[in-house]
Amino acid sequence: MANNDDQFKKVISHAKEYGYVFQSSEIYDGLSAVYDYAQNGAELKKNIRDYWWKAMVQMHDNIVGIDAAIFMHPTTWKASGHVDAFNDPLIDNKDSKKRYRADVLIEDYCAKLEAKIDKEVAKAAKRFGEAFNKDEFVSTNGRVLGYQEKIDTILSRMAKSLENEDLADVKALIEELEIADPLSGSKNWTDVKQFNLMFGTKLGASADTAMDLYLRPETAQGIFVNFLNVQKTGRMKIPFGIAQTGKAFRNEIVARQFIFRMREFEQMEMQFFIKPGTQKEWFEYWKETRLKWHKSLGMGDDNYRFHDHEKLAHYADAATDIEFKFPFGFKELEGIHSRTDFDLKQHEEYSGKKLQYFDHEDNASYTPYVLETSIGLDRMFLAVFSNALVEEELDNNTTRTVLKLPAVLAPFKAAVFPLVKKDGLPEIAKKIVDDLKWDFNVFYDEKDAVGKRYRRQDANGTPFCITVDHDTLEDNSVTIRHRDTMEQKRVKIDDLRDIIKKEVDVKEWLMRM
Ligand code: ATP
Q: What's residue 39's pLDDT?
């Protein structure tokens, strides 16, 4: 089996070779951490976005969707806290000239200690066999306890220093732990500095009247500033949600993991407005509901875990991440945050406008609390794509590359082939395409031997291949081949639509939630 690094390299090259993701402006040697979605990638991305939108907006009669502008009044970002606090601590290595996030260097150090714990556990499991009790082992084994204590001490010291803006101590910690530049091995570090992640730009033609703007670093604020507009015009009653998908921009210090961390990316966010005091129940509700959404795609229940935050952002009273097992380990895919009334109160203060809700049942006004679900569309794309790419050993000692995308998300639902390019077979195949394309994205291919065409569609993630042959001329039947099982069946042309629909229909998938 390929190791994780190799697997990740394969994911990146497959994404390029099959027209999913290209490096931005590649002919100019690319732009760092910026990517373009290609012909198949754009379809997959759209399908993921639709799957989210349907689950969140269409299936909830108390959630509506908006599409706010990327530019917002600059005071928005003062009010939200981004101007003052949307920073990452950066550190440079003086020898290699490489830049790092200081907190990530320390977290990576702790991850190595965690790997040592895992090793001890694996060794003990082997030694004790069936009688092994993992919980007991990790809570009593001296070495494991030692590692764990070290991790806890380091992380709590870092959290405290960051909270107190004591950047000198963050550097001291890096030096005490003797953390070296992962690339060059050098321990020659600069001081730690705070770096604001927002991109600035200007609005207006002349230098003296131009206004300083930011590209939004999250879509959420477009929802908060529209809270009352939507509530009034939509006559929404609490609890209700406002959802939105759209681009966000962050000048990330380190962005080296393909589309996992980009400087321009897309978010799918939903802010759920609730009565103060009910946030704990709603936090649990949305944790569970969002995990069910992920699991409905059948990408392996063991590939998800929650990571509850101990250090909370300034606006939150509870927060958790849904982490996914990417080729480089478990990492954040989605955040669920209980944001209290922080944002609405801040916008009230900075705008001088009341952003309250009048509750007819209680006959009183209040500032609602907010529960947020926030997922990166590109990260979801990477989760789906990397999980789907498999190398399969076949019975005849050959291998095939298959992209086992959840059928509901696949860019093309079916490919239609004439067995040969003559005898009227292409005409029938094209007629099938013309008929099916009203319902599904279908692909026509007549080049190369059929076996080769099957393999191309396997690698492209297409759930069905349909082949028209000479028998079709007699009995209006075709061969339909299933991507995952490779099973081939003879079916009537008239039945194709129903057969495909059964596997790709959003309803069939969302009903699993
Ligand atoms: P991280 O800790 O990975 O930087 P975050 O906690 O800052 O992420 P949030 O601000 O909670 O992320 O944003 C919500 C979601 O947006 C994340 O769960 C992630 O899926 C996505 N996201 C955030 N930053 C990026 C990025 N630079 N590139 C791609 N997706 C991102």
A: 97
Q: In angstroms, rounded to a whole number, what is the distance separating the alpha carbons of residues 342 and 354? A: 14
CATH homologous superfamily of 1-72+198-391 equals Bira Bifunctional Protein; Domain 2 (3.30.930.10)
Residue 401, SS3? strand
Q: Please state the pTM of the whole predicted model.
A: 0.90
Tell me: the pLDDT tens digits for 322-373?
999 999 999 999 999 999 999 999 999 999 999 999 999 889 999 999 999 9
Q: How far lies 242's CA from each of 315, 365, 507, in Å?
A: 19, 20, 22
Report the number of secondary-structure helices (H) and strands (E) in the chain: 18, 23
Say if residues 387 and 415 touch (Cβ distance below 8 Å). no
CA 504 to each of CA 214, 231, 297: distance values in angstroms, whole numbers, following the listed order: 40, 35, 11
Q: What is the pLDDT of residues 8-27, one digit of tens each?
A: 999 999 999 999 999 999 99
270: left (phi over 0), alpha (psi -120 to 50) or beta: beta
Best probe residue, ligand 1, of 267, 312, 382 (max atoms within 8 Å of C-beta)? 267
Domain 87-196: assigned CATH number = 3.30.40.230
Nearest protein CA to atom 23 of ligand 1, as residue: 376
Q: CB of 240 within 8 A of CB of 62?
A: yes
Binned at pLDDT 50, 70 and 90, residue 1 comes out as very low
DSSP code of 54? Answer: I
Q: How far is CA 438 from each of CA 46, 143, 198, 464, rounded to the nearest angstrom?
A: 17, 63, 43, 17
- Counting from 1 in the atom list of ligand 1, the atom nearest the Cα of 217 is 10
Rg (CA), the chain: 26
Average pLDDT over residues 233-249: 97
- Indicate the burial class of 206 (C-beta count within 10 angstroms; 0-12, 13-18, 19 or more): exposed
Structure tokens at 505: 């229909």
* pLDDT of 318 over the 90 cut: yes
Please work out whether the CB of residue 315 comes within 6 Å of at least one atom of ligand 1.
no
Tokens of 416: 């239609």
Q: Decide whether any atom of ligand 1 lies within 6 Å of the 250 Cβ.
A: yes
CATH code that applies to domain 412-510? 3.40.50.800
- Starting at the edge strand found earlier in the chain, the sheet holding 87-92 runs 99-101, 87-92, 193-196
| Domains of the chain, residue spans | 1-72+198-391, 87-196, 412-510
Shortest-distance Cα residue to atom 19 of ligand 1: 376
Count CA atoms closer than 13 A to 61's CA, side-chain side: 1
Tokens linked to 37: 């979605």
